Automatic annotation (TrEMBL), chain A:
Residue ranges annotated for the Lipoyl-binding domain, each copy included: 62-139
Transmembrane segments: none
Native source species: Mammaliicoccus vitulinus
Region (Disordered): 39-62
InterPro entries tied to this protein: Biotin_Carboxyl_Carrier/Decarb, Biotin_lipoyl, Single_hybrid_motif
Keywords, in A-Z order: Biotin
Official protein name in the record: Acetyl-CoA carboxylase biotin carboxyl carrier protein subunit
Automatic annotation (TrEMBL), chain B:
Keywords associated with the record: ATP-binding, Biotin, Ligase, Magnesium, Nucleotide-binding
EC number: 6.3.4.14
Any one GO molecular-function label of the UniProt entry: biotin carboxylase activity
Enzyme class: ligase
PROSITE patterns: ATP_GRASP, BC, CPSASE_2
Protein name listed in UniProt: biotin carboxylase
Pfam families, alphabetized: Biotin_carb_C (PF02785), Biotin_carb_N (PF00289), CPSase_L_D2 (PF02786)
Residue span, ATP-grasp domain: 120-316
Amino acid sequence: MNIEKIEDVIKLMKNNGVSYMKYKDESVEIELDLKTTVTESASPTTVPANETQTSHNSTEQHNTIDAEILGTFYLQDEEQLSNPLVKVGDEVKKGQIVGYIESMKVLNEVISDHDGVVEDILISHGDPVEYGQTIMTLK
Amino acid sequence: MIKRLLIANRGEIAVRIIRTCRMMNITTIAIYSEADRNSLHVQLADEAICIGPNQSAESYLDIDRILEACNMSKADAIHPGYGFLSESTTFRQRVDEENIIFVGPSFKTMDLMGDKIKARETMYQANVPIIPGSIGEVKTVEEARETAEKVGFPFVIKAASGGGGKGIRIVHEASELEKNFKEAQSEGEKYFGDKRVYIETFIDKARHVEVQVLGSRHGEAIHLGERDCSIQRKNQKLIEEAPCTALDSKTRASLHADAVKAAKACNYESAGTIEFLLTDNGYYFLEMNTRIQVEHTVTELLTGVDLIKQQILMANGEHLSLKQEDIKFEGHVIECRINAENPEKQFRPAAGKVLALHLPNGFNTRVDSMLYDGYMIPPYYDSLVAKILVKGTDRLEAIEKMKGTLEETVIDGFPTTLDFLYRVLSYEPYINNDITIKFLHEHKIV
């Protein structure tokens, strides 16, 4: 992959409104992020800088913890809720267990992928959760 | 009685099952992968549960997730559709263990017919003609040699659990026998964990003719006539029709009777299909499909019997209320499978967004599809997007009618098999019914 080819790829991305791509094979790996310069191919110069800024910020501020399996969500490993692993306002660390999903009679740990503070818990203790559903939001 | 049915499938067949359930006052529960969030079956079902990511292995093929979805939704029954887990004996057994009704045959039947050696033995004992070859497993090269002397060259060595072209070897002369025998064994072992093989004579020119059967757990069984599915590409059927006009009435009656014998021999309960190869010398049992098939619609349009409804009634344990003499065969039905594929590029599957859509309609016309305007076809699954069927008074009228129907159809946004199928229907050898399973390989119609 030489500089001309990379230019071609950037042109292709711009023409198709693609802002991010990653490519990898045996010999090369490239990652292109045009987010801050172009979002609309038709009029790249008129994109307000603060708009992309805020959307960028908001994704950083509101991380979510999503269900990676379907089943019943629990905030502690007992059916009676007496001592939940986390409450709104608690600080959580990346890798921390914040709950369990029981699927086919097996308890699966729900782990936070981010550091943050629990902003909201959307699924109640003992409620069903689908794959991909947001359980908690963090700020 | 089934009240809440979970459909462990997607696409047009899930939509098809939902439609019958609505009529029967059964609550439907759809499952879906993330890629299918906007699919029609999700929107039409009464309830829907996302069970996993795009990959089938972690969604539509994940037994634990599907059974958990049953728990969560309190489903009392599962319809497996076709493909995915529909013929998995492991799945079948787990469904039993969870005390959920399976809309399909018993574990024992599926286990018996899924094993090609046991299926052949069962048919042989029931006096249903099987392809000449070994009865049971061929264990050694010596045994293979003895069988070869009886059936003659060329013949085929097949793995008992084989499929999709894996574990099959054609033997043209004695010198190839040992090598091919061992290859078929090891391929069976490698892909299916089963090294048992058997031998069949090599049949090159034949039609693929299958008989739809319906059985109950009370030992009742009837047939709903045959379908000719010879127009295939790499074992994928593209056009199916009924009746098979190459059969004389005597052979047809005997074929139907043998199919009912076959269904009874394996205690078949539900809708199923007995596949045969039809040659100039007769017909031979090929295998049984222990599930609803894509082309069940051909039989439905011909006979007026709702096969999904019958499956649900059989799963409820009811007696077969249809008698053989109730089944009437009038006219000729043709089905075209519209796949999102590019025929000019070796039928490479194509995904994309539906930009314009007009599905045909008319007298004795049926369309089963999950397409809607703006629908985005995900690239992860089957390429079948619509089945278009017509019924005419005879084969020639049905061909003409199908051509008109395809002309009316608009599916824009990705390549489809639509124009290719039109060319097949306009092609003289097809019109003259000069067809075998090799048809699309011998005639370059693209």
